[in-house]
Amino acid sequence: MMEADGGASVPDMLIRDGKRQSVFRSYVVPYMDRPNLTVLPHALVTQLTIEHKRTTGVQISYDGSVRRIRAGCEVILSLGAIHTPKVLMQSGVGDEVESNHFGIPVIQHLPGVGLGFQDHLGVCCLWDASGSLPSRPAPEAIIFWKSKTGLGSPDFQILPAVLSAGDAARLGLPAGGWALLGIVVQPKSRGRIRLTGSDPADPVQIEANCLCDPDDREAVSACVELCREIGNSGDLRPFVKREIIPGNLKPPELANYIRDGAFSFWHQTSTARMGRHEMCVVDADLKVYGVDNVRIADGSIMPRVTTGNTMAPCVIIGERAAEILRIEHKF
Fold first, then answer.
1. Which of these, 102, 117, 106, 116, lies nearest to 195 by C-alpha position?
2. Alpha-helix runs per DSSP H in the chain
3. Which long-range contacts (CB under 8 A, 24 or more apart) does 198-201 make?
4. CATH homologous superfamily of 40-113+269-329
5. pLDDT tens for the chain, residues 1 to 331
6. What distance in Å separates the CA atoms of residue 324 and residue 172, rounded to the nearest whole number?
7. What CATH code would you report for 7-18+120-264?
8. Domains of the chain, residue spans
9. How far is Cα 110 from Cα 282, in angstroms, rounded to an integer?
10. What is the distance between the alpha carbons of residues 136 and 199, in angstroms, rounded to a whole number?
């Protein structure tokens, strides 16, 4: 559906005993007793240690002290699309103007580090249910659809959600509420991640620039209209007591609602992109350009955010990284 004309389908989900399973629990937890695996919760990776453009390990803040861990073969960064570029920039791998601004010695000028940020942005349409509804760990169906004819593939996604009693109370919403969440899945808008200081404890500045492209605003508006059409349809009338938000708003008011109510779906990508042009950060083997012994294996390497959710693509990136390492190092 994501690559064709769209439609509705049961989604593929990792569910066990009624709970969604994380990648960490699926991949790492079964092997926690291995002697060659050490997991340090609450350790903060602050920078790479690099000698003559060769990565020798990482520096971490752990248990109240700064420690250095030396790499036997190489370092794999897998900190996500926000903290991977942060660690690179803190290590002097990034745009030299930004590095010089904070007094960070430049190891490798890579102007694309932190650029290209993309995310899936969501908007909520909410109804008060006429009766109680069962809470589910995952949506039972999802929709991919196009905001206009002529598009090669869907540019938005819709999924249902039932409010838990706790969420409803916390948000001041009806306990029997249910929602349709509309998500722009092929955004054209791009942002960037920037440092705010040279100290690793300094937060990054996220310039998301969501919905800055007019095509993205058009897509999310069409998505909200379809959500309302579905939610207020005759087939769903037995489950609807009243529509809470957004209601039948005129275009200016609807645009304000979308701008004020849009939220991240936590699918951040593309801040250390793979490719061959000057704004790319890694090559086809996930190696960082200009710095030896370091690769990146997370969503930051995606040239653009995927049309669907990013969990499965990130797993594939990790699988591919493991295959490359196994072949190169003969594990």
1. 102
2. 23-27, 80-90, 96-101, 165-171, 214-231, 251-261, 311-329
3. 198/90, 198/102, 198/103, 198/104, 200/44, 200/46, 200/47, 200/61, 200/90
4. FAD/NAD(P)-binding domain (3.50.50.60)
5. 788 889 999 888 888 888 888 999 999 999 999 999 999 999 999 999 999 999 999 999 999 999 999 999 999 999 999 999 999 999 999 999 999 999 999 999 999 999 999 999 999 999 998 776 766 666 788 999 999 999 999 999 999 988 777 777 777 777 778 899 999 999 999 999 999 999 999 999 999 999 999 999 999 999 999 999 999 999 999 889 999 999 999 999 999 999 999 999 999 999 999 999 999 999 999 999 999 999 999 999 999 999 999 999 999 999 999 999 999 998 8
6. 50
7. 3.30.560.10
8. 7-18+120-264, 40-113+269-329
9. 10
10. 43
Spatial distance between the Cα atoms of 270 and 301, rounded to a whole number of angstroms: 5
Residues 310 and 316: their CA atoms lie apart, in Å, by 10
Judge whether 255 and 141 are in contact, CB under 8 Å. no
85, 206 Cβ separation under 8 angstroms: no
SS3 14: coil
Sole residue written with tokens 């949506």: 139
- CA 239 to CA 160: how far, in whole Å? 13
**How many Å is the Cα radius of gyration of the chain?**
22
Secondary structure (H, E, C), 82-105: HHHHHHHHHCCEECHHHHHHCCCC
Helices and strands counted in the chain (H then E):
7, 19
What is the spatial distance between Cα 263 and Cα 265, in angstroms, rounded to a whole number?
Answer: 7
On the 0-12 / 13-18 / 19+ scale of CB atoms within 10 A, 273 is: buried
pTM score above 0.90: yes
